[in-house]
Amino acid sequence: MQRYVVVDLETTGNSAKKGDRIIQFSAVVVEGREIKTQFTSFVNPEKPVPPFISELTGIDNGMLEEAPVFSEIAPRIMEILEGSIFVAHNVLFDLPFLQQELKAAGFPPFRGPSLDTVEFSRIAFPTLNSYKLGDLADSLSLYHERPHRADSDAFVTAKLLLACMEKCASLPVVTLEQLVPLSYSLKSDLAGIFEDILEEKRRHIEHLPPDMEVYRGIALKRKILPADDGPREIGRYPQDAVEKESWFAASGTGMEARPAQFEMMDHVREAFSAEEHVALEAGTGIGKSLAYLVPAAFQAISEHKPVLISTYTVALEHQLLNKEIKRLEQMLKTPVRTVLLKGRSHYLHLFKFEQSLKEPDRQYDAVFAKMQILVWLTGTESGDLDELHLSGGGKHFWQRIKQDGWHTDKKDPWKSRDFYLYAKACAASADIAITNHAMLCAELERDQSVFDGFQYVIIDEAHRLEQAARETIGKRASYNQMKYMMARLGLYEQKQLFYKLEKMMEKYGLKARLHAFECDAILQGLDAELDDLFGMLAQKVMRAKRETNGYQKIKLRIKKENWKQKAWQAVLLCTERVRASMKEISQALEERLSQLLSEKQMKEQTLAFIEEMYSFLEDWRLLRKNLAVFAGQNGGDENVVWVEGDLRALPNSLVIYCQPVHAGETLQKAFFSQKKSVVLTSATLTVGGSFRYFLGETGLSHTTKTVRIPSPFRFDRQVQFIIPNDLPDIGSASMEDFAEKMAGYLLAVAEATKGRMMILFTSFDLLKKVYQLMKESGMLEDYMLIAQGISSGSRSRLTKSFQKFDKAILLGLSSFWEGVDIPGDDLSCLVMARLPFLPPDEPVIEAKSDYFRAKGKNPFSAYALPEAVLRFKQGFGRLIRTRHDRGIFLVLDRRIETATYGPAFIKSLPPVRIRHLDLNGTLEAIESWL
User: How far is 307 from 454, CA to CA, in rounded Å?
Assistant: First the structure.
């Protein structure tokens, strides 16, 4: 019987080699798929424990004074580990750390096999959002008594190990038979577990669940189209407030009646009935999602007119699907047929995937992705990439097996089970389809769109629609992307796609016009030209370098007149040479593929490879086309072109972008004019009470119906708005001086609010300076200081860290100005360092300003100011998320009062009293308010 020892350590820091030490050790013994014993001990590190480690773990110096030193417990540890498999959550941290401590104490290293539960859980549960131990414990309902304590962490990791084993034991035999050979290429010693489970399952007769099938050796969920249950009765739409109140009360959802929500419901209902477009600003706390879902359901079920809902973020997509639609069904007392719609390339091409399993691939990322997909297929109904948590390398593998249509007329044996065709079939019978703005805008340029059947549309987070359209319609070409495509194709001796294609030609006795060695020569030349092109662009970016402190990406706008300059002509000529070589390769591949397709007898593996080659060729052509736009062809003054790169990683980080300056005309022509009714809603659509700016940006007529429904929150009772009168004016002070004064001010405020403070910045340079000054002050030893761009992690990870610690301060950049939801006491103080004007030299901002100037308008009042006001409203919206929240709102930029445009910002807020206070007055106000 295999014995596993699950180990967790708490340490003074991340590096044993740099002198960090263990402060707590715990080991849990697992045998026969059950937990047997646990050994835990504090360890005296013979050095002080850093304050942030004490804050994280709850272990302080006093608790370790009487604890044994490591050498005293080392014999016991060696005894426990004897003859076992070493298990840890992130084994590459715990095992080397332990080995270093054993070595320092004069003991031999552990030489047995090791297993990483991060790797195991990513295979067993491939759809989870996070594989951090605490998040896994939440997702899998594993009781985690004290996170960041070795005893609790080791016990939970042991439970996680058992949960992974149990999940794998539930997989069909055919899936395990494919996982076993793949598992030999993993980093951990997981193959033994898969072999044992498979051996055990083979001893019993297998009964597959009724919703699962095995087709061509792959186990997957059966695709069952939603049954048409005939007409569904949902009654009459509730007409007045009394009817709505009793309807909500009878629903059993326990939801309170909100007059503003009722008002919004009626406006959406009226827009659909009158078949008109409406822009609807709905303040925070209205219950916007249900306010549009209820009339959407009546439109779809009673009127038989399906409704499409588009959101900006994937998070809101899933919130609608997993939470709001369920609530809606409870209220209607009938199922609402809902489908999540994505672009074709989001779905798995099963034929290509099946053939990829037959390849003797040992490349780690590809093997790992194959294992994740095999497990995922036993549970997914959609086949949608966004469900999967793939690594960067796994996403590269996905490019090979994504669904992008059929390029041959030969029969695909998997067509009857194709996920994309299934999604389209579900959409055809859906009441409500949910998508995102990027997907919606990507379909605008297609002759036949997957959304053609939806004439009634709701656009949530509508303030982001024009930006999403610009980015989606726009083109991009990156150095890494082009190098990756080159590597996929490969020279003949590199044995990649080109080599496989040549071998296939030889097999069928076919000959192409361009010989393999000629193609090789073109590819080698192309590779060199690419390096030259991006090398020249890297030099241009370096010359454009401003004060970046080694962080910020440089964005260099390329105007039409640039191409006339001698220095840029070399770039233009090089681009043309790259495109010419790409065209030659494109033609050589096309010729070979069309010759192969004329063959009568063709194996499935050959057919799958041809499909993959055509898919590659499509991406290759698109890259070539995007380069044409960059070089000033097919574009015009209506486009903005720029190069972007990170100074620390040139030329690898370089990306060329080309976007329309204004996407409103495209939206009007390809979207609004094609739909009967579109409802656009958000909490921030107006500037100074007017929709004019929003309507102009999205291409809607100024006669479009507009509605404003204010928030039901009592901001006058929930918010203290303070403008400090003892800070320097940001316009007249130097950045260093302002940062110094600001840091001192914030340190005092942080003490008063006990952290729970978010500071919004518009510039990384200022954020970094303030962060360093606050950190170096020594006054925040008890506080968790988190800064975007400095602390590692995504926005959601930084937000979670902020919510986890009692005394936390979060310094955020642009992405924190909206879409961050921190209700309750976790956020008590919101600070704006500066008014959120976008940098005027950003390529898109500069091009937009040129666009308005050409129309005879003042770019500041027509564009820069309205954008800043909308961002200001979004930022303010982070503070009060429920009617019970209370908070302090601090704006440190005195221009909100001194500049002529200041009132535009103040007027954009709900009624709230403004106070002008010095630091002492501010601290007193905070004390009495919070």
Answer: 6
